[in-house]
Amino acid sequence: MTSTDALIRTLSADLVAVRRRSVPREVAALAAVGVVEAGLLLAAGAMRPDMAQMISTPFMLWKIGSLALLAGVTGLVAVRSLAPPATPRRGMMAALALAALTVVAGLFVTPTGAGGLPLLQRLSPVHGLLCATAITVLSLPMMAALAVLMRRAAPVRPRQSALACGLAAAASGALIFTICCPMNDPLYVIVWYALGVAAVASAARWLLPKRFRL
């Protein structure tokens, strides 16, 4: 046996079988995390009391539909970015373009009377900060699930993948938060939800590559 053979045998002695990645399986697992979290929120009685009346309004359809679309797109971008040859840059740019389109669409669903209110009243900073904080907290389970997937995979651009994971987790948290958010102004949603998403994405970009030693 040569020294090279001995080295290979030594390096491979502790290796264990690794389950092959499957994007559909991982996407399904992430969706399950979101469904369970939303179910727990509903079971806790946190749904806004007027949801039955609001669910079919243009504003609520825009709010839930936009966030569901963004959560789906960013989740797929994040999972796909974990494969070695993939880069999330183009996917994230597409997601940002989609977010811009949803903002424009929000201009057309402002409830009657809301547009004439003072800006400070429409933004309601105290409630807005609470909403941004709630989105951050609700993003944590999805962030943890994505961190596990990221650690098991082999992203060649860990910082970009971390940012993609942060955006996906934040979009998921914002979507789940629509269950209990009582505010009905698109301007409020755009400003404070964007703040919560930015906070989660920034934290993921900083934390995931360092703490998980990719």
Task: Please give a quick description of this structure.
With 214 residues, the protein is mainly α. Helix content is 72%, strand content 0%.
Write down the Rg.
20 Å
**Structural shape:** elongated
* Contiguous runs where pLDDT drops below 50 for at least 5 residues: none
Q: What kind of sheet is the major sheet?
A: none
Taken as a percent bin, the fraction of beta residues is under 5%
Supply the number of helical segments. Answer: 9
Number of DSSP-assigned strands: 0
Give the class from helix and strand content and strand pairing: mainly alpha
Order of helices and strands: HHHHHHHHH
Helix content: over 70%
CA-CA gap between termini: 34 Å
Instruction: Let me know the average pLDDT.
Output: 89
Secondary-structure blueprint of this entry?
Elements: H1 3-12, H2 23-43, H3 51-54, H4 58-80, H5 89-106, H6 119-123, H7 125-152, H8 158-177, H9 186-211
Structure in words:
Keywords: Membrane, Transmembrane, Transmembrane helix. With 214 residues, the chain is mainly α. It is built from nine helices and no strands. α2 packs parallel to α8 and α8 runs antiparallel to α9. The longest helix has 28 residues, at 125-152. It is elongated and about 85 Å long. The two termini are 34 Å apart. The relative contact order is 0.16.
